[in-house]
């Protein structure tokens, strides 16, 4: 039975036009899913999807510009002012063939049957300005209770599409909700089905979870056996203790605290997730019962690369995250020339991230010497800012002389030119004020004489 609620939602003009035109042609039409949910939560919807009793060919006949984006499943994209709106015919999904896609789709004239196939109650609401919110499964109640609950039986919904298992945790993280008990039990029972889901799909859901306000929901993946299927390294981290004065959490709990201590930035959150990924395999315990994790930075960088490549991440993500993992434990003294050299070593492109990683890591440790360490890190940050603002020489191309200048004064091409440029770079790193062409050319003469000797 359809439950209607006269709550008013402000829909975009183009969406209102699409709904109105479909109705004028004798069809039902509703905004549906995430846009309704987000509107009720006073969040700005990213997309507006529409469901209708009109068949795909009828939708195409009504609107001038359409794209057949998923016509076999009833979806036509209607283009309005350079924006696409997916318009999908009410449908009933047949048996799912691969834990992700239905073998067949049957169109229906009943909105209730369409809403019944959707994943969670908060995503199974529809809206039309005339009828208000159609809420058959008490999605509004679950929004108020801050609950993620499957439509109908969780086992059926997760059997149809295993990606919903990750989506449940992701929605809970993004919205700050908890997962209803039967839905949570469904996660545990069907977690193995995630092995049939593409790595790209898993990547997207994990990224949204990690970059949410609640990355600590990674605990749910461990507690329900989900991470054992998609990220077994996380299980090892959650199960590895750190008996060390500078630590007060397990590796996994430390990682969660570290993720919570940095902004919800893609590179930062993935680095914090993986910065200690090698600790379980590098852990040794000394005679005093203190744990050590020698070499976990290098090994962690290698493991991070394997994980990120397995999840089909882009090259920049793999490069930045693995480098940050490699350098995350690197110690820098708050002295200008040491900071300059650390920028060269770590990389100017990721250095601001390095500083945030250091802070996040520190805030997730015990409070031994924390104030002193935090002040030193803040001073390093100030020095970095000065170095960048004053445009200190940090790479060979920043030198005021070039290989061409050296060739012009008779320095032999090849190794000699390279060696002298590197020597000049070392000199300027310690003395940035010496990056002047006349001073550097005088230094070249000194270096030439040394070469002759």
Quick description:
51% of the residues lie in helices and 11% in strands.
Please tell me about this protein's structure:
By secondary structure, this protein is α+β, with helices and mostly antiparallel strands. The chain contains 23 helices and 14 strands. It has an eight-stranded mixed beta sheet with strand order 1-10-9-2-3-6-5-4. Strands 7-8 form a two-stranded antiparallel sheet. A two-stranded parallel ribbon has the order 11-12. Helix 7 (163-175) runs parallel beside helix 9 (199-210), helix 13 crosses helix 19 (351-363) and helix 14 packs across helix 17 (315-327). The mean pLDDT is 94.
Descriptive keywords:
453 residues; alpha+beta; eight-stranded mixed β-sheet; two-stranded antiparallel ribbon; 23 helices; 51% helix
What coarse outline follows from CA principal-axis ratios? elongated
* Distance between the amino and carboxyl termini: 96 Å
Q: Helix coverage percent of residues?
A: 40-55%
The low-pLDDT segments are: none
Number of helices: 23
- Mean pLDDT across all amino acids: 94
Structural class: alpha+beta
Please give the largest β-sheet.
8 strands, mixed
What percent strand? 5-15%
Strand order of the largest sheet: 1-10-9-2-3-6-5-4
Q: What Rg, in angstroms, do the CA atoms define?
A: 29 Å
Find the count of extended strands (DSSP E, 2+ residues): 14
